[in-house]
Amino acid sequence: MNKPESVSSPSPYSKEECKLRLLEGKRDVIFARMQRMFDTAIQVESDSSKLPSLLSQASNIDTLRKEFELNLDLFNEAQLMLNPKAMINYQSWTSFEEMFCYVKQIMERHSNVDNTSSENDSARPISSFPKLKSHLPPIDLMEFDGQLTKFPLFYQQFKNMIHDT
Fold first, then answer.
1. What is the mean pLDDT of residues 131-160?
2. 139 closest CA partner among 120, 160, 122
3. Mind giving me the DSSP string for 108-139?
4. Which of 72, 82, 80, 83 is nearest to 137 (CA)?
5. Whole-Å CA distances, 95 to 1, 4, 15, 32, 84
6. Rounded to an integer, what is the distance from CA 119 to the centroid of its chain?
7. Crossing angle, helix 15-46 and helix 91-115, to 10 degrees?
């Protein structure tokens, strides 16, 4: 039997577009991971039995922060390479930092509560601290300008970012 030959069609994306899409995907995955940690930290406020789960999820939180920052810089750089007039957006960094600081605060407070028997400021109930809300980064979807040659790129980006999520 003859094996069918695999037909490889050329990618509709340039090398720079592929890099941008990969960086965007990685950014979104890292952000989602921080969001899960943040959600667990909120749960710890009312249910301290969730603390081991938070500690497990956040075991490499500092490394995750560095990866997110580097990835976001590379993403913005790639975006500028494709379109020098592109708007650089660090809103996702602000949101990530808010969640990061909140998770660290909850972890430190609980480690202080566990390691001290005195009732001082570090042992205050979690509910006495202000609550933070996370904000998802805006979706940077390219505009379709009506040129049929650009439609496959637009449609694939739309499908990956909105339809298939």
1. 77
2. 160
3. HHHHHHHH--S-SGGGS-GGGSPP----PPPP
4. 72
5. 57, 49, 29, 11, 25
6. 36
7. 30
CB 37 within 8 A of CB 57: yes
Residue 134, amino acid: S
Specify the higher pLDDT residue, 120 or 133.
133
Angle among Cα 95, 53, 129 to the nearest 5 degrees reads: 50
**Residue 8 pLDDT greater than 80, yes or no:** no
9 pLDDT band (50/70/90 cuts)? low
Q: Which amino acid appears at position 54 of this protein?
A: L
* Residue 32: both structure tokens together: 């989602």
Local confidence band at 147 (pLDDT 50, 70, 90 cut-offs): confident
d(CA 70, CA 117): 40
- CA–CA separation, 67 and 26 (whole Å): 10
Kindly report, residue by residue over 80-102, the tens digit of the pLDDT: 888 888 888 888 899 999 999 99
Residue owning tokens 């202080």: 112
CB distance 107 to 40 below 8 Å: no
DSSP assignment letter at 84: T
